[in-house]
From TrEMBL:
NCBIfam families: gnd, PRK09287.1. This is 6-phosphogluconate dehydrogenase, decarboxylating. Catalyzes the oxidative decarboxylation of 6-phosphogluconate to ribulose 5-phosphate and CO(2), with concomitant reduction of NADP to NADPH. Residues 180-470 form the 6-phosphogluconate dehydrogenase C-terminal domain. Coiled coil: none annotated. Keywords: Gluconate utilization, NADP, Oxidoreductase, Pentose shunt. Pfam families: 6PGD, NAD_binding_2. Transmembrane segments: none annotated. One of its GO terms (molecular function) is phosphogluconate dehydrogenase (decarboxylating) activity. Pathway: Carbohydrate degradation; pentose phosphate pathway; D-ribulose 5-phosphate from D-glucose 6-phosphate (oxidative stage): step 3/3. Gene3D superfamilies: 6-Phosphogluconate Dehydrogenase, domain 3, N-(1-d-carboxylethyl)-l-norvaline Dehydrogenase, domain 2, NAD(P)-binding Rossmann-like Domain.
Length: 479
């Protein structure tokens, strides 16, 4: 067989099929393969005219059609299916070949696979791909990990098929082994937080300001022209302005209020706990989905009292809308900051050299959290690669300072009226935690020392100490 294909894609469900078409549309010769050959045939029948595809039914035939070093992109279900496909291909490959996992793998699996394939001299590249079906076809945001050598070969291909913003590709080498999938996971965690914050803003405008979904859609459209400009705000306005064809009711009112999840938010929260990274807004957004899907628990709580409903005048509602915009923006800055902190923490833990500015840069297009303000996040991190927090950057600090009164007013109004705002409140509380001069952590240390002799440090002298709490005069000793 003529080894003509620049890249091979195995796994031709929605994502693999669209990525294969994207490569082909950009002039690459693409070998295509799927466990069930019917998918391969239908891809070529329907879209063969879009470029050059080399279909293969057998794995050997697929591998033989690839130029060396061979580049195989796996687009199958994450988990055991990915391992099964790797096992199938490794014996057919040789040193220097590359396997790219474009699925939503857990970064720990990617680390394991990368280490195992290194022993065969095969480059394993865990590449986070965001943008869903549409992005895969027309330009996703691509977050590849793995070796620098593999990016030297794959980078130009990824950068060609990725989304572009201001002429810049939305693909960059994130870092070694699992770094790409880690960053994709955090992207999804931020996505959970961003969506929850938008949903809470909607709920406040609906319940407190008593706007209709169609009116709120217009508010979101206005916000989308300003600093909140983003894909998620844009689609929110679309969803809110949609009317149900069967009932004539606002579509949002006929959708069951139980949110689903596929697991990347949960992974982000679990990993944040492992790293000790306080990603509280992302965690609350994930728990909010879980709580919404607990009907028995919700029924048990439903009869209990809530807050007070106080009608607003039109001008009060307009003022409140402005406050919600401020609160949403400030909370969003905190959520993104928490995501970046996780990436900084993992980089420290694993010694990964990650360019945080470049990460924000490739999230400006192609992916679900694409937003105008990522430009500013990118600039802030690029200007100071050691930036601990966005809030240490003067322009963001100024905006957060300006948002103080409305942000607190919105969270207080929600509490008084009994409207849940777990993500808004978590963001504000995170802000207040991190800016506090003194935290009650001092009391926690006292409690821990009391029941578990866990020791403490003092503010006035060096060393580690323990108080003998049960002795009458409670003597203190150096531990
Ligand atoms: P799915 O996640 O639905 O997986 C279906 C594909 O996996 C089919 O090609 C199927 O082959 C193949 N497959 C399975 Br299942 N088990 C296999 C096995 N043991 N051996 C070989 N092939 C096997 O596809 P998708 O929605 O296109 O997503 C692909 C990857 O991209 C996933 O990891 C997903 O998490 C990730 N992702 C998806 C999105 C999205 O918006 N859908 C976005 C970003 C990332 P068959 O045809 O023979 O059954």
């Amino acid at each position: 067989m003529n080894a003509s294909a620049h890249i091979g894609v195995t796994g031709l469900a929605v994502m693999g099929r669209n990525l294969a078409r994207n490569f082909a549309r950009h002039g690459y010769t693409v070998a295509v393969h799927n466990r069930t050959a019917a998918r391969t045939r239908s891809l070529v029948e329907e879209f063969g005219h879009e470029g050059t595809f080399v279909p293969a039914e057998a794995a050997e035939e697929f591998v033989d059609s690839l130029q060396r070093p061979r580049r195989i992109m796996i687009m199958v279900q994450a988990g055991p299916a990915t391992d099964a496909v790797i096992q199938e291909f490794v014996p057919l490959l040789e040193s220097g070949d590359m396997i790219i996992d474009g699925g939503n793998a857990h970064f720990a699996d990617t680390r394991r696979r990368e280490a195992a394939l290194q022993e065969h001299g095969i480059h394993f590249v865990g590449a986070g791909i965001s943008g869903g079906e549409e992005g895969a076809l027309n330009g996703p945001s691509i977050m590849p990990g793995g070796s620098k050598e593999s990016y030297a070969v794959l980078g130009p291909m990824f950068e060609t098929i990725s989304a572009h913003v201001d002429g810049e590709p939305c693909s960059t080498h994130i870092g070694p082994d699992g770094a790409g999938h880690f960053v994709k996971m955090v992207h999804n965690g931020i996505e959970y937080a961003d969506m929850q914050l938008i949903a809470e803003a909607y709920d406040l405008l609906r319940q407190v300001a008593e706007y209709s979904p169609a009116e709120i859609a217009e508010i979101f459209r206005t916000w989308n022209k300003g600093r909140l400009n983003s894909y998620l705000i844009e689609i929110t306005a679309e969803v809110l302005s949609h009317t149900d064809a069967d009932t004539g009711r606002p579509f949002v009112d006929v959708i069951a209020d139980a949110a689903g999840q596929k697991g990347t938010g949960r992974w982000t929260v679990q990993t944040a706990l492992d790293l000790g990274s306080p990603a509280t807004t992302i965690a609350q957004a994930t728990f909010a989905r879980a709580a919404s899907s607990q009907p028995a628990l919700r029924s048990a709580y439903r009869p209990l009292p809530g807050g007070t409903h106080i009608p607003m005048t039109r001008s009060e509602a307009e003022r409140f809308t402005t406050q919600v915009e401020e609160a949403l923006y400030a909370s969003k800055v905190i959520a993104y900051d928490q995501g970046f902190k996780m990436i900084q923490d993992v980089a420290g833990a694993y010694g990964w050299d990650i360019d945080f500015g470049a990460v924000a840069g490739i999230w400006r297009g192609g992916c679900i959290i694409r937003a105008a303000f990522l430009d500013r996040i990118s600039t802030a991190h690029a200007a100071d690669p050691t930036l601990v927090s966005l809030l240490a950057e003067p322009a963001f600090a100024q905006e957060i300072t300006a948002a103080q009164v409305p942000w607190r007013e919105v969270v207080a109004t929600a509490a008084r009226r009994g409207i849940p705002t777990p993500a808004f409140a978590a963001a504000l509380s995170s802000y207040d935690t991190l800016r506090a001069e003194r935290l009650p952590a001092a009391l926690l240390q006292g409690q821990r020392d009391y029941f578990g002799a866990h020791t403490y440090q003092r503010t006035d002298k060096e060393g580690t100490f323990h108080t003998h709490w049960t002795q009458p005069d409670r003597p203190e000793t150096a531990a």
